[in-house]
Fold each of these.
Amino acid sequence: MLSKREVFDGVPEEYLSHKERYENAIRNSVVAFSLVRKMQEEGKTSINNYRDVVGGLLGSSVLRDGSPLGLHYIMFMPAILNQANEEQQEKWLPRAWNCSIIGSYAQTELGHGTFIRGLETTATYDAATKQFVLHSPTLTAYKWWPGGLGQTANYCIVVAQLYTKGQCHGIHSFIIQVRDEETHMPLPGIKIGEIGAKLGLNAVNNGFLGFDNYRIPRTNMLMKHAQVLEDGTYVKSRHSKLNYGAMVFVRVVIVFDMVNYLSKAVTIATRFSAVRRQCQLKAGETECQILDYVTQQHKLFVSIAAAHAFRITANKLWLTFNEVNEQLVEGNLQRLPELHALACCLKAVTTADTAACVERCRLACGGHGYMMSSSLPLTYGLVTAACTYEGENTVLLLQTARFLVKTYQQLDSKALTPTVAYLKTAAAERFCVGWSNTTEGIIRGFQVVAMRVIIMSTFNEEVQEMSRTVSPQLKEVLHQLVDLYCTYWALEKLSDLLLYTPISQKEVESLRLRYEETLTNLRPNAVGLVDAFDLRDEMLQSTLGSYDGRVYERLMEEAMKSPLNAEPMLQSTLGSYDGRVYERLMEEAMKSPLNAEPVNYTFHKYLKPFMQGKL
Ligand SMILES: CC/C=C\C/C=C\C/C=C\C/C=C\C=C\C(=O)SCCNC(=O)CCNC(=O)[C@H](O)C(C)(C)COP(=O)(O)OP(=O)(O)OC[C@H]1O[C@@H](n2cnc3c(N)ncnc32)[C@H](O)[C@@H]1OP(=O)(O)O
Ligand SMILES: Cc1cc2nc3c(=O)[nH]c(=O)nc-3n(C[C@H](O)[C@H](O)[C@H](O)COP(=O)(O)OP(=O)(O)OC[C@H]3O[C@@H](n4cnc5c(N)ncnc54)[C@H](O)[C@@H]3O)c2cc1C
């Protein structure tokens, strides 16, 4: 067995180079997941409960900034369980389970993450050879983000637009080998590398992946829900969204993740607040623990309560997930929309609240909270990513809103599912006649708020269709900015206005409408307004914010600067701006200290022995 000291002699990760951090991540991961394999051999974990074990490891201090093997467990295996038919599960699951293959999950592309029906990667069926031809028609079609794909995984689940007999049938999942199992070299027709440094999760080895007419057997299409027969006939799924199942599972798991991260952050901040003494409550007294300040308690205690609330919620959501999936197996799809809406809502709410609470815990520790050694900045980097991956929070909340508005519109015609049954009673005028300062009273109050907001949303939908007029004169635009700023903060501080001013409910409702109209009015001038700051690209130093809008080319150019991408060389143009792609790649490769190695040496030193069960 490897010992930690063998690699970097206890040097904290912050002081390692990019390549050393990758080696450290690989080494720690194969050691950690060899334990999982040992537990498998001893029957202490199985394909049905590995998530607790793996979840604990992935959130542990051993893999503190993520793992290049994380996606293998987080999405590659769940996707096979969720999307592959029995024959395919028999073929792939044992190899995935004992890590003789390492997988990732490649759905997001440079050009699309949220709108998955707009993904550009194509999988075109060739009946003559009984194969699918995978192709990336544009730079924006390159898969971008899949964890572990940069230098680690040799297989991945790829989500692509399925074409057969000249017709597109939308996105489907395929299991695809991307690297040679012996040499780890990218296979011909595969363009692959890592995307570069990120705000956090820098041990995850996120990658990019492009296909150049790459052929796979027909049987590599995951065919549990939809199929393509040998002659190219398409057999559609019972429900078009069953293909989205892996995302629902991960959103549910993320809620558990947030419990772990929030518990850690508030433990650090509360213990520190008991140790830290600062200032005197009364002159001449000894300095008091900062935990004695009400302001400090205001910052921290709600996080303790939230950690418990999220744990209870996560367990309830897990039960619902299992209930609904058992019904799906029996062909009953009735509660699928509710599960989707619930998973969207709870993933978005718990990640956003956890990110806010972790940042508040950091601030509550003063300067020492800003130290990497406090682990609070690292934890913030981990949780804030969760607001984006597995469905960007705004988009997921819109999915929940869509479900709630539809539920409201069918209030009288359809039986309500358990989680929204309260809408029936909350609609009744008599439901909340007075306010009681009890837990039940507050919950009833929020149920009324939910009901009224849904009614407002339904009403707004109608109103929004009536008036959209804009006349962009500078004076008018500046007035709009003043208007926006005032209405934004009035709505943000509504509780104070309701407490201290005679603002009425009707006025609040029209304030909300006015706010949304102002957003709409400003939209056509939004880019012009930031151009007016006249910030040159050299000052912005951002791949996303450059004046020319060439976001994707710049992202790829920056990715190519990573030293890890020098091995092996990329075989194709990546749409670089000046067209000098090969000269630039060679220049970059010559800067890499390891460019003599066609494969990162960690494959032979750690990965291959691990995959062959020799560690
Ligand atoms: C073991 C693990 C331990 C620890 C680690 C844990 C966590 C770490 C996890 C992750 C980090 C690492 C990896 C990250 C991976 C990724 O990020 S993978 C990529 C994730 N990407 C997304 O989530 C994309 C988000 N976008 C979407 O999901 C969809 O585009 C959409 C926004 C839902 C819209 O879809 P679409 O356009 O097809 O649908 P609409 O036209 O809007 O119609 C909506 C109707 O469809 C129904 N619907 C939508 N989605 C689903 C679903 N998933 N299931 C069921 N039903 C669905 C919806 O209910 C509407 O129905 P209707 O109203 O009746 O029409
Ligand atoms: C750390 C990390 C790990 C990841 N790992 C993986 C992985 O392993 N595999 C994988 O496939 N992907 C992965 N992703 C990608 C992730 O799934 C996407 O980033 C995410 O789905 C958001 O898509 P996007 O980046 O295209 O953002 P966009 O969708 O472009 O969002 C940008 C902005 O547009 C807004 N917006 C977009 N659509 C709408 C709409 N309809 N209505 C209103 N506003 C909208 C959003 O709210 C947001 O403010 C990862 C991402 C991160 C950060």
Amino acid sequence: MAQRQVLHGLGRSIGWSMGHKRQPNSTTVRYSHWMPTIAKSDYRKSVDPKYNKGMGYTYEERQRLSLCGLLPPAYRTMKQQLYAVSESFANQTSDLHRYIFLRALRQRHERLYFEFLSKKVNECMPIIYTPTVGTACVKFSLLHYTALGLYVTRYDKGHVIDVLKNWPHTEIRAVCITDGERILGLGDQGANGMGISVGKMDLYTALGRIPPQFLMPAVLDVGTNNQTHLADPLYIGIRQERLRGPEYEEIVQEFMDAVVEVWGPQTLIHFEDFATPNAFKFINKYQDCYCYFNDDIQGTAATGLAAFLGVERISKKPLQDHVIFMVGAGSACLGIAKLVIKELLKRNVSEKDAYKNIYISDQSGLVTKETKVMIPDLKPFCKDMPPMNSLEEMVEKFKPSILLGATGSAGIFTEKVLRTMGKHNERPAIFAVSNPTTKAECTAEQAYNFTEGRALFCSGSPFPPVVFNGKRIVPGQANNSFAFPGVALAVMCTRPFKIPDDVFLVAAKTLADYAEKHYPGEEKLFPTTVEACDVAFDIAVNVAKYFFDKGLSNVFPKPDDICDFIKQQQYYTNYDSSLPPVWEYPELPSVPLPDEWEKKTKKQRS
Ligand SMILES: NC(=O)C1=CN([C@@H]2O[C@H](COP(=O)(O)OP(=O)(O)OC[C@H]3O[C@@H](n4cnc5c(N)ncnc54)[C@H](OP(=O)(O)O)[C@@H]3O)[C@@H](O)[C@H]2O)C=CC1
Ligand SMILES: CC(=O)C(=O)O
Ligand SMILES: [Mg+2]
């Protein structure tokens, strides 16, 4: 009996239950020799990425789990393993190699991977997320080795539920799905869009600390119109033109219903990188009847509004008095514009005044009543004025104080556009939010150089700090990754049936407040990425409060301490064990880690 308790304790300490098929009377040492089959299955489990500790298995655990001899003799603490990973990471020869290295780590040793991401956010975010994830998607056919997420295809029609049931984890609480049609600013990547779903869900865990076993990245492969992929003999998806019309919508509907059937109506369904007309069609169809959100519309909206609230704070001018010019009439710009309107209406600004100062343009110029509008959500933003085409002329004419581009068209914020922004504003707010970096409307350097260093600049993908007139300026990152992990964490904890738009107002305000609270008196619109985990937690707390207060949570009773309630459901990477040894193993000599590395690993803000 005592023996069984020890074994159970050990099972818990490494993260799985040992079961009851043990020899109750055997000693532990004999057990490991007598039961080769079980020992072998323990070995498989011990290298399962979810449980693996790598060289972090203690000598005691190695003895009990029949791992002696299967690992090198040295033992490594989590910190020593992190050091090993960071050395190997740094030795990779390109960002794509770093991406491949991290993917392999994820497939081998999940807790170490997430611990590394959270300790090295600055270094890892640009790899597992934008910009490198964009390159990875383009080349995904060469990188695919094993199931990272679920592929559902148009030919699974009528059987989507069976495909979903093949996913190895049974308790899924969030799904991120893309059909790959608009991957970042890189266009149609078909099934290669899996890289984006995987990247987003990795941030659920790295930033939101949502346990990875609750998450399922997915691709809905309905074909691709990307001619390069269609001609590529190694393309991993269905080599056919994209499905359109009712058949396309039916397969999306079947996916939605299958998720609800398999994992329940409280499963969060996150739509990512759908082409804009479909993105708006589905948000309007699903938002009120599924636990659903579209990240490019709503997550981006929360981040964009937060940036504008920061501009309001720094400029000491109410948001409704700012002239906002948006270049791009897609998911990102329209999502932000709609949330700004929501915020202004809440402040009792009249509808007419709320719309008055927001201008939107697309490739054919200013969106006016003459524009052939394909997305109904764009209609209220159409101006009753003559058409205008040149961005330079529009910026000169409307004198925006906030200029935001989400176009996927690199460099359209020309020197003249930027200088005009600088001419009309003391602190011109310039946001080049297109991803990846190669698609940014301007670089950080251009934004500061052409405005004499006065720009309040943010970009979608990270730019390095710029030194202007001897002053080091750190550009902010205006990316929806500051919003969706916190919203998802709140949803996972409170289990609502739907996610109203107000949730993204809460997220925006929390993000803006975070910057204000942590950088008082500083002209900083966003926290740094190393704080993204703390931001996600704050957003989760406020959004969870919102769900409880509005009666939308399905968790009863309302917890007294929401912070604690959320913390208890988060993912932790600790796998310490304090078991006694079975046979004696001497304390082996070790060498301390370099001081330099220890210092660098401590949290730094910029
Ligand atoms: N930082 C972040 O968090 C986020 C960034 N993004 C990025 O924003 C970009 C756009 O995404 P999304 O809105 O979904 O994309 P869409 O493709 O739906 O929209 C792009 C819009 O930009 C317009 N456009 C393109 N080129 C120009 C140009 N040269 N001048 C004026 N308008 C132009 C298009 O006009 P037309 O319709 O006439 O073709 C279209 O209205 C992408 O790069 C994406 O990565 C998206 C979401 C979040
Ligand atoms: C960040 C993001 O979601 C995009 O660029 O599409
Ligand atoms: Mg996106």
